[in-house]
UniProtKB/TrEMBL annotation:
It comes from Segatella copri. This is Amidophosphoribosyltransferase. It catalyses: 5-phospho-beta-D-ribosylamine + L-glutamate + diphosphate = 5-phospho-alpha-D-ribose 1-diphosphate + L-glutamine + H2O. Its EC number is 2.4.2.14. The keyword Magnesium applies. Pathway: Purine metabolism; IMP biosynthesis via de novo pathway; N(1)-(5-phospho-D-ribosyl)glycinamide from 5-phospho-alpha-D-ribose 1-diphosphate: step 1/2. Residues 1-219 form the Glutamine amidotransferase type-2 domain. GO terms for molecular function: amidophosphoribosyltransferase activity; iron-sulfur cluster binding; metal ion binding. InterPro entries: GATase_2_dom, Ntn_hydrolases_N, PRTase-like, PRTase_dom, PurF. GO terms for biological process: purine nucleobase biosynthetic process; purine nucleotide biosynthetic process. In the C-terminal section; belongs to the purine/pyrimidine phosphoribosyltransferase family.
Length: 479
């Protein structure tokens, strides 16, 4: 996915920029970048590969190159190298994005036909952030340029633009990914995660709306473009991506996860000895489930955090499996001979969970393994954000099972996505069988949306029900 952070201050911003960007590290592990501006040095940029190290480790020793900067932007990216520094008729600026552009090749060809050129290449293809920058400079103003991006791309794009006199923040036109504004005396900041704010003494001041464009300076904020009326914020911010202390649209991540588990427990008649979460995103749900069910919450699996990243991020399946195996350590003393109910955020491919369940039975002596999932089955691939490194819907365990049953992975998807239908139940039973589970239940869309606390029409649930396909071709303008 990726996360972005920006800050502008009446004094040095370097420490805030460094730590604020680092607080977005859970959103990606591939590349990190910082860009700053000062009247003495102008624009300064640094980008590092994070696949074998951490953001802090890579950047801490080189922070002196940014000395004197009073404004800057940073990014944790799972795709392209960024921020980029551009020089155009709009002036010099640095830009970073959280984006997935489904029609990237089509737009690349369109710009090439206009005699534009691309200097940045990501893994041999067009750098999405450079594509966004080139779409912006087609226009006469930053507002018109950002609107040009919104009108042309299919997918999503949230961005920050560092100029000589401020930071322009533009949220995706459907609001799928967030930008939140924070402030303290003499400084403003913007971030994908409110988690960046407390330890840097920022207070949450404003949530940028869908398609809204604002500009922050050290002494205030101005609106450049009003927010759109329609919103489709990604439900996976609460299910998986978000850090527990973060809040989006006024709804806290951990509170939503706890409520999700609590409500699910009230409708579940399984008998178990205890409840445990699959770290980290399953923990809050498990605590809620234990409270709702009236059973003990126990840490039957612990995550070894010092060296292992989130396992969805490596692009290589064997590396994902290795990370997933090495980072989770079962506690045999808490598992042997017990009936344990585990809570997890989702099931994507199923490979990690299958291997973990086998270990729990074969090595830890587990008696029964019951699994409860925070969201409905993932039946549709996500065209809006880089949810995983999946390249095909066939990487989803649901699609492989549908193909097994129907002979066509795209047949009767609506029936398989409908909770309680015969097709749905058959699919869930097959998933449980393939993963070696004693029982398996998924949350419903209705319960998930209730736990998040927003109207269904404002929450994107496309990966569960395919309901947001129309937004690829429809522009959510403010009218």
């Amino acid at each position: 996915m990726g996360g972005i952070f920006g800050t502008i201050s009446k004094k040095s911003c370097v420490a805030d920029l460094f730590y604020g960007t680092d607080y977005n590290s859970h959103l990606g592990t591939r590349r990190g970048g910082l860009a700053t501006y000062s009247s003495e040095k102008g624009f300064v940029r640094s980008i590092h590969n994070l696949e074998s190290s951490y953001f802090r480790t890579k950047f801490e020793s080189t922070l002196n190159k940014f000395e004197g900067a009073t404004s800057g932007i940073g990014v944790i990216s799972d795709t392209d190298a960024q921020p980029l520094i551009m020089n155009s008729h709009l002036g010099r600026f640095a830009i970073c994005t959280v984006a997935k552009i489904v029609n990237k090749d089509e737009l690349t060809q369109l710009l090439l036909e206009k005699n534009m050129h691309f200097a940045e290449m990501s893994s041999g293809s067009t750098n999405p952030t450079e594509l966004v920058a080139l779409l912006i400079i087609q226009a006469k103003t930053f507002r018109e340029g950002i609107e040009n991006v919104f009108h042309h791309i299919k997918g999503s794009c949230t961005m920050m633009i560092l100029t000589e006199d401020g930071i322009i923040c533009a949220r995706d036109s459907w609001g799928r990914t967030p930008i939140i504004i924070g402030k303290k005396e003499g400084a403003y900041a913007a971030s994908s995660e409110t988690t960046s704010f407390p330890n840097l003494d920022y207070e949450t001041a404003y949530e940028v709306g869908p398609g809204e464009i604002v500009k922050i300076k050290a002494d205030g904020m101005e609106q450049i473009r009003p927010a759109n009326k329609k919103m489709q914020v990604c439900s996976f911010l609460w299910v998986y991506y978000g850090f527990p202390t973060s809040t989006y649209e006024g709804k806290n991540v951990e509170e939503a996860r706890f409520t999700n588990g609590f409500n699910l427990a009230k409708t579940d008649d399984v008998e178990v000895d205890c409840c445990s979460g699959i770290p980290d995103s399953g923990t809050g749900m498990a605590m809620g489930y234990a409270a709702g069910k009236g059973v003990p919450y126990q840490r039957c699996i612990a995550k070894y955090t010092p060296t292992w990243p989130r396992s969805f991020t490596p692009s290589n399946q064997s590396m994902r499996s290795l990370v997933a195996k090495m980072k989770l350590i079962p506690n045999k003393a808490m598992l042997k001979g017990k009936r344990v109910l585990f809570c997890d955020d989702s099931i994507v491919r199923g490979t990690q969970l299958r291997d973990n369940v086998k270990v729990l039975f074969d090595q830890a002596g587990l008696k029964e393994c019951h699994m409860r999932i925070a969201c409905p089955p993932l039946v549709y691939g996500c065209p809006f954000i880089n949810f995983t490194s999946s390249k095909s819907d066939m990487e989803l365990i649901t699609r492989r099972i549908i193909e097994k049953f129907e002979g066509d992975a795209n047949k009767n998807l609506e029936k398989y996505a409908t909770t309680g239908s015969p097709e749905y139940q058959r699919m869930v039973d097959e998933i449980a069988s393939q993963l070696g589970l004693t029982s398996l239940k998924f949350n419903t869309i209705e319960q998930l949306v209730e736990a998040i606390g927003l109207p269904k029409c404002q929450v994107c649930t496309h990966c569960f029900d395919g309901s947001s396909a129309y937004t690829l071709d429809e522009f959510a303008d403010e009218d």
